[in-house]
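Action item from last week, closing it out:
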Amino acid sequence: MMKLKSFFTLLTLSFISAFSFAGTIVLEGNYMGKNIFVKNPFGGAGVGFCVFEVTVNGKLSPDEVNQSAFEIDFANHDLKLGDKVIINIKHKDDCKPEVLNAEVLRPKSTFKTESISFDKNGVLRWTTSNETGALNYIVEQFRWNKWVKVGEVMGNGVPGTHNYSFKITPHSGENKARVKQVDVSGKPRYSKTADYNSSAPAIVLEGEKFKDIINFSGGETLFEIYDRYGIIVKKGYGSSADIKGFEKGTYYVSFDNSTKTVQFK
C-alpha cells in the first residue's frame, strides 16, 4: 500500500514538474469574425501533444487540443465584432505549436462614409458606420497638387454610427480634405472628399532671393521647403521660415496654395 501511494505521489510530482517549465504564446488583437488555427506537434518526448491549455480573455477555452491541429472557436465565447481578444496558448517547454493565421486578429478597415463635410469654421466632420476594427483615421488635405497628411483621429472600431471631427488649417481659396485608414493589407481605404471655400486672404512670398529668413506676407501659413532634388529640408507653420545654415542654391517653397522657386543666398 505504501509503495502504491509513493508511486502516485511520484506521478503527481512528475506531472507538476513537466508543466512548471511550460511556455505560453500570447496573441492579442480584435475579434474580426474568423477563428484561429493552430498546428500542434507532439511533445519533445514523443508522448502527448504540445499544447495543454488555451484561454481566451482569461477563460478556459473548451477546444479539443489533443490533436495535431486544432481550431480556437470564438463561437464558444461571448464576443462581438471588434471586441478585444487576448489568447494564451500554453504548451510544454520542449516543443512549440505554430499559429497559422494570427493576422485574423488584426483590425481591418471596413468603414462606410455616411457623410463628410466642413462646418462654417473650417472643422472637418465625418460620420461613419460598419467599423469592425480600431484603426486611426488619417486626415489628409489637398495642398500643392498632392494629398498631405495633417493629422490623425482614432476610430472607435465597433459597429454602429460614429461621429468624428478635426480642425483643418485652411489655405486661401478652395480647400479639399478626406480621411483614410490603412489596415494589415497595406491598402488604404478612403472616404469621399469634402470641399471648403476659405475667405482667408492669399499669402504672398515677395522676392526670389532670400538670406537667413523667408517672410510670408498676409499672415501665417503651413509651408514646406524642398531642395533641388525634391527632398523636404524644412516644414512648419508661421509667418516666416528660418533658413540660416542652408547651402546656397535653388529651393522650392510651398506655402498657402502655391509653390515658388527661389534662391538662397
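Closing note: Residues 209-264 form one domain.
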